[in-house]
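Lecture 7, part 2: worked example. A protein chain together with L-homoserine.
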Amino acid sequence: MTDTCTATAPSSTANLGPGFDIFGLALNLFEDTVKLTRKQTKGNKIIINRIVQSGPEIPLETQQNSSGLVVKKMAQDFKISDDIEIEIFKGIPSGYGLGSSAASSAAAAYAFSKLFKLKMDNNLLVDYAAEGEIASAGTKHYDNVASSLLGGFVIVRTLPKIEFIKMLPPEDLNIIVGVPQIRVPKKKTEAARNILPKNVSLDNVIQNISNASTVVAGFALKDVQMISKGINDMIIEPVRKELIPSYEIVKKYALDAGALALTISGAGPSIIAILKTDVNSKKIISAIQDGFNESHIESKVYLCKPSNGAKII
Ligand code: HSE
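Predicted complex, written out as C-alpha cells:
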C-alpha cells in the first residue's frame, strides 16, 4: 500500500513590531506545498526526493531541511517505521522574512498528522512544526509556524505550557510587503537573532508591553488603526534596522504616503506596511520602492491580506 498526503501552508509575517517571537500573521501572498508518501518499506528512512523552487538552494539532507526535521521527529515520537518520501514545492522565496521555512514545516506537520491519522490538538501540532525552525534559525520559535498552520493572527504562549491563541483579523486589514533585493547570509534568521541584545531596559520593556497590548486590542476590536498604533518596537527594530538599507527612509516615505505603520517582517529584510483599505496602496508601493532606491536597491513590493492556515489539497 502506498499512501500520500499533500498539504499547503501560507507565508506569514512575525513579530508585528513589539511581539518578538509572540505574534504571527498568516499572509495570502505565497504558499508552500509538501507531499508525503508512505512507502511500502519499513526502514525508518526519511527521503527528501524533490524540491521544486526558485531562489537559494534548500538542503536535501533531513537534518538540514525544515520539512525533514519535522517528519523525522514525528515519525520517531509516534513510532512510525515506514520509509517516508518528502516532496517540497517552494512557493515562498526563502530569505525574505516571510516564513518560508515555517510554511514548509507547517505543511509537513499537517500532512504527516493526516497521513498517519494522528489525533493531536493544534498546540501539539504547532510544537512539532516548530522543530523545522531549528534548520534555519538554530532554535525553535513559534510565531511563523503557528500563524502558517492555524491562519489569521496568532499569539504564542510558551509558559507554563505551549499554547496558541488565534484571532481572526479585521476584514479591512491590508498589508504591503516590501522585499529589498539584497544578499542575505545563508542562515539569515540565525544571524539576525545573534545580534539581538541579551539585556534590555525596563523602560523599553514597559513601552513594548503597552504597544503589544494595543496590537492585541486592535485585533480583538477589529480596529486596524489601533493595531497600527501598537506597531512600534523599542527593542528589536533599532538593532535589526541596520541590516536593511534605507530602512528609516522607507518608513518615512511609506508613512507620508498614508501607511498607518511600518515595521520589519520577522527577521527581515522584508518590511510590512499596514493599511486600513487598499485605497492608498499604489502610492505606498511607489513610496517604498523610492525609499529603497535611495540606496540604489531594487525592491519587490506586494499588496496582500491575512490568510487562512494550512490545508490538505
Ligand atoms: N520571531 C522570529 C525572529 C521570526 O524575529 O527572529 C523569524 O523567523
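The CA atoms of residues 71 and 224 lie 38 Å apart. The domain at 3-167 is CATH 3.30.230.10 (Ribosomal Protein S5; domain 2). Keep this in mind for problem set question 3.
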